[in-house]
Amino acid sequence: MTWTAYEIPLISHPQQLTVTLAGTAYQMTVRWNAALATWMLDIANQNGSPLVQGIPLLTGRDLLSQYKYLGIGGKLVVQTDQNAYALPTATNLGTDSHLYFLVSS
Questions:
Q1: Handedness of CA 55, 94, 19, 23 (dihedral sign)
Q2: Model pTM score
């Protein structure tokens, strides 16, 4: 199986954005959790009703793997330039660390 990757544009600041994943609009909220030293992701439907909250942006895994029941239709993965498994830092999200939506093609 081959995958097509689409980068979700992020910056190293708390943010809320609307993205279309596999033809469906979602609201994403990304915030830095200082206590855990990691970025956290919340996903809501297009009306703002929460679907899943508090997903840590960790590398080396499909962030949606335990949420297949949502039917989002792809994978969310985080990857850092120069070291695919390095975690995003408070200052490199969107520059050296990236969030990708992968769909099978």
A1: negative
A2: 0.94
DSSP, collapsed to helix, strand or coil, labels residue 37 as coil
d(CA 29, CA 16): 4
Domain of residue 20 covers 3-104
Neighbours of 29 (CB within 10 A): 16
| H-only helix segments in 16-100 | none
| pLDDT tens sequence across 76-95 | 999 999 998 999 999 999 99
How many structural domains does the chain have? Answer: 1
Q: What is the pLDDT of residue 31?
A: 98
Q: What digits encode the pLDDT tens for the residues 22-52?
A: 999 999 999 999 999 999 999 999 999 999 9
Give the CA distances from residue 55 to residues 34, 36, 59, 100, in Å, rounded to whole numbers and listed in that order: 14, 12, 12, 14
Residue 55 pairs in a beta bridge with 41
- Spatial distance between the Cα atoms of 29 and 40, rounded to a whole number of angstroms: 8
